[in-house]
C-alpha cells in the first residue's frame, strides 16, 4: 500500500455484520485502521478514544472501520471492556471491527510487519491506519509499532488538512496547523493570480535567500 493506491474492494465479517467495503463506505471518506490484538491495554485505549470521538469523524463525512486478526466472538466480548474503560461511549459501540481471522485481508492491505510477513499464520497486525478518500485512494498512511498508541486528535487534524487541500488545491497546511490558522500558498501559484485566488488577503514574507516562496493566507 502506498499513497495514491486504490484500496481494493473486499468483503468482511464485522461486529456490525458482513460488509462489502465499497458498498459500505459509499461516497464517504474512511479511516481504516488495524490493531494488534483484542484484550490488550493500548488497543483498548485506542479503539475507545476513537469511539468517543466518532461524532467528530461523522461531522467530516468519515466512516471508521477497525480490523484485527481476532475472531468475531473475541471482538464482541472485548467491546464490553472498551466501553467499561471509556465511559463516554454512549449506547452501542459506534463503528464496525473486522474479524480477519485468516489474515488474508491484513496481508492484502499490508498490515503485517516486515519481520512477520513470512509467518502470517502467527503474525499480529501492526498499528496501520489509512485515510481513504471518496475515490477509494489512500490519501494518508500512519504506521505505528505495537508499543505506541495513536493520537486520535492528530488523525482528525490530518483529515481536516486533507479535505481542505482537496477542496482548494492552491494551498498546503504547515507544521502544527489547525483549522483557522494560516495556510501556505503553493509555489505553483503565480503572484499575478494572488488577488483573484485570495481576495480576502494574503501575506508575503521575504527570506534571506531572496527566493520568493513563503506566502500565507487565512482566506480559505
TrEMBL record:
Q: Which ranges carry the Thioredoxin domain?
A: 1-164
The record's annotation in Gene3D superfamilies points to:
Antioxidant, Horf6, Chain A, domain2, Glutaredoxin
Q: Which Pfam families match?
A: 1-cysPrx_C, AhpC-TSA
This protein's record includes keyword Oxidoreductase: yes
Q: Protein name, please?
A: 1-Cys peroxiredoxin
- From the Swiss-Prot or TrEMBL record, what is one GO molecular function term? peroxiredoxin activity
Keyword vocabulary terms for this entry: Antioxidant, Oxidoreductase, Peroxidase, Redox-active center
Biological processes annotated in GO: cell redox homeostasis
Catalyses:
a hydroperoxide + [protein]-dithiol = [protein]-disulfide + an alcohol + H2O
The upper taxonomy is:
Eukaryota, Metazoa, Ecdysozoa, Arthropoda, Hexapoda
Amino acid at each position: 500500500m502506498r499513497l495514491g493506491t486504490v484500496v481494493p474492494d473486499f468483503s468482511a465479517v464485522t461486529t456490525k455484520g458482513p460488509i462489502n467495503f465499497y458498498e459500505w463506505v459509499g461516497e464517504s471518506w474512511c479511516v481504516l485502521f488495524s490493531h494488534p490484538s483484542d484484550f490488550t491495554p493500548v488497543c483498548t485505549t485506542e479503539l475507545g478514544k476513537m469511539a468517543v470521538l466518532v461524532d467528530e469523524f461523522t461531522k467530516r463525512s468519515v466512516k471508521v472501520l477497525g480490523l484485527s486478526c481476532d475472531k468475531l466472538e473475541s471482538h464482541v466480548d472485548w467491546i464490553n471492556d472498551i466501553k467499561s474503560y471509556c465511559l463516554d461511549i454512549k449506547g452501542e459501540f459506534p463503528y464496525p471491527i473486522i474479524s480477519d481471522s485468516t489474515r488474508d485481508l491484513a496481508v492484502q492491505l499490508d498490515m503485517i510487519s516486515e519481520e512477520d510477513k513470512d509467518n502470517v499464520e502467527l503474525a499480529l497486525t501492526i498499528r496501520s491506519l489509512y485515510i481513504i478518500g471518496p475515490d477509494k485512494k489512500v490519501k494518508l498512511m500512519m504506521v505505528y509499532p505495537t508499543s505506541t498508541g495513536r493520537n486520535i486528535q492528530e488523525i482528525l487534524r490530518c483529515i481536516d488538512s486533507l479535505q481542505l487541500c482537496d477542496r482548494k488545491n492552491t494551498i498546503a497546511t504547515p507544521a502544527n496547523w489547525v483549522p483557522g490558522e494560516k495556510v501556505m500558498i503553493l509555489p505553483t501559484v503565480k503572484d499575478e493570480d494572488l488577488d483573484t485566488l485570495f481576495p480576502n488577503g494574503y501575506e508575503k514574507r521575504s527570506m534571506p535567500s531572496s527566493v520568493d516562496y513563503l506566502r500565507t493566507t487565512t482566506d480559505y
